[in-house]
Amino acid sequence: MKSLWRDREAAEYKGDLGLRVYTSRLLGRDPSLVLHGGGNTSVKIREKNIVGEEEEILYVKGSGWDLETIAEAGFAPVRMAHLLKLAKLSVLSDSQMVNELKAQMTKASAPAPSVETILHASLPYKFVDHTHADAVISITNTANGWERIREIYGDDVVIIPYVMPGFDLARVCAEKFAAEKSDRTIGMVLMNHGIFSFGATAHESYERMIDLVNRAEIYLQKHNAWHISSSSLVATKVVEVRSEIAKLRSEVSQTAGFPVILSSHIDEQCLNFAQSEDVHIISQQGCATPDHVIRTKRLPLVGRDIKAYAEAYHAYFAEESTKSTQPITILDAAPRVILDRQFGLVTVGKSAKDAAIVADIYQHTMEIIQRSQLLGGYQALPTSDIFAVEYWELEQAKLKKGGSAAPFTGEIALVTGAASGIGKACVNSLLKRGAAVVGIDINPDIENLYDRPDFVGVICDVSDEVAIAKAIDKAVQSFGGLDMLILNAGIFPSGCRIENLNTATWQKVMHINLDANLVLMRECYPLLKIAPNGGRVVAIGSKNVPAPGPAAAAYSASKAALTQLMRVAALEWSGDRIRVNTLHPNAVFDTGLWTEEVLASRAQHYGLTVAEYKTNNLLKVEVTSHDVAELAAEMCGSLFACTTAAQVPIDGGNDRVI
Question: How many separate helices (H) and strands (E) can be counted in the chain?
């Protein structure tokens, strides 16, 4: 554990709050300390209020902010005087606590304060840092963790037995810390939860955190519990089976009651853990910290028996819910983590971002479990303690409050020709509606089109069947299956009359505009067939289908044949709940098909200027890629739930089509 503090960097941050931001970001840079909103930091600052009175304000990390990217606006300012009064209460419900914290904020626009705000206030130090350091948790989550923590730190830390986060934890910490702290105390360890450090300055508190965690890492190394050996089983060649992963996603979605994203991880670490002989034992003890249960559930599924997992989850809820003092609503019974010998680690989320967060958390959990095992045996909290956090009053409030998800949340789309024009616009429209999108294109730029968890770009020549298969495999590995297929890739050769059209050009156009789409539909059919909400296919046809023009024989014929293929697919696939529709755009000039040369040639053919040609329709409007993409996305949505085999023009009104 190395300090990342740099004097030159620190000098750019002004004042106590500025330095609080700096050291918070330093902590957030290290995923072995905090992950995805985990941990919190604070600073106490004396300020004058609007009437000139000086008061002490606690600036504590606000809800929804990550330490790695936090700014001054991410800290909630709360009046210390009231917080210290709250800390002396014997009882305070979570809902009351949340109300009191919000009521004592000095900025209405600030985020909601951390649930550990009162705990930060009760610690008599200007700066307080709290992390969920992997090394510390690896030690606390063992049978004799308390003794080991005392051996490592002596009187340098106060040790707190596990108490559920919230007011009760703040009260216990305040009492125990006041009774046990000494002149040597620089931190506090919460068993099965995390570690605190304190200081008079941001630098001091940060360096103490690094030192305390470093001591835990050294202890693990000294006891041969740091380096995790790989099993020989990892060397086994793992061949992903597309249909099996998609089937697994379908079963998980059915159990959850909504479409989900499945992300497969077959790196050495994940396979080593999933293929270990004792995975059925070590993975079934519980999560590393109770905070993780909200993302990962208490236990992962080992294997693929979704039904058995759901039955066990219902039994778990039935037993533990009887201990609750108020009515609680059961969450869905689908797993969020699946450990499989062939697929390695499979993570589940309502979105690609959620699945990625689960993966990050469980990859760290695997290391914690394995190090705890090397230290004598992993031991998580009792089931009841984890259940209490999973069904926490505050989490139940969020559940009841709800909120509508984007229409394609949990669904997956594949778009061809996605690097530019209509294809890129389709990617944007689908992402906006909550879908995870795989974009394929022969242009290498597709790989870097977007840097976000819900998009994967794959270089693919659609005229190559092997490349198509690999692209679909990548889609399934990344997101778990396929719900929507947008057939957009195509070529438009230079104008050429039939008497001058050579066979090679004809065949190339047919191969890309027609044959490739047949292959894509054939290969995607098994995935679309088991899409949770039914599969959807939208082909980008052309106005040339109902109204062809001269010098475009190959293009017009290929699009007409594609349209006929779509009609047949609609007939054949309707029984599988797959909707198949076609759009016929015209004069969409912000696409790769329309080079300046082609545009000028077509305008000249009709005796128009380029500007006139662009709006040469009844409505005198220019049709853009965005317009086409929005309609394509809508055809995959609920508005077209009763429509298949449709051919919809999007051309501003073309008299020849009409």
Answer: 25, 18
Chain centroid to Cα 617, Å, comes to 43
Taking residues 349-366, report their average pLDDT.
97
- pLDDT tens-place string over residues 498-515: 999 999 999 999 999 999
- Residue 531: closest CA among 458, 435, 460, 452: 435
Please give the pLDDT value at position 238: 45
pLDDT-derived band at 236, boundaries 50, 70, 90: very low
Name the token pair of 412: 């997956």
Q: Give the span between the Cα atoms of 44 and 127, in whole angstroms.
A: 7
Q: What is the pTM of this model?
A: 0.93
User: 7-222: which CATH architecture?
Assistant: 3-Layer(aba) Sandwich (3.40)
CATH number of the 412-593+623-650 domain:
3.40.50.720
Sign of the CA dihedral 272, 274, 277, 280?
Answer: positive
CA 560, 566, 567 angle in degrees (round to 5)? 90
- Sequence length of the chain is 658
H or E segment to which residue 114 belongs: none
Those residues with Cβ within 8 angstroms of residue 187's Cβ, 6 or more apart along the chain or in another chain: 153, 156, 157, 158, 195, 196, 197, 198, 208, 209, 212
User: What is the CB neighbour count within 10 angstroms for residue 99?
Assistant: 12
* β-pair type (157-160, 187-190): parallel
The token pair that represents 32 in the structure block: 């072995």
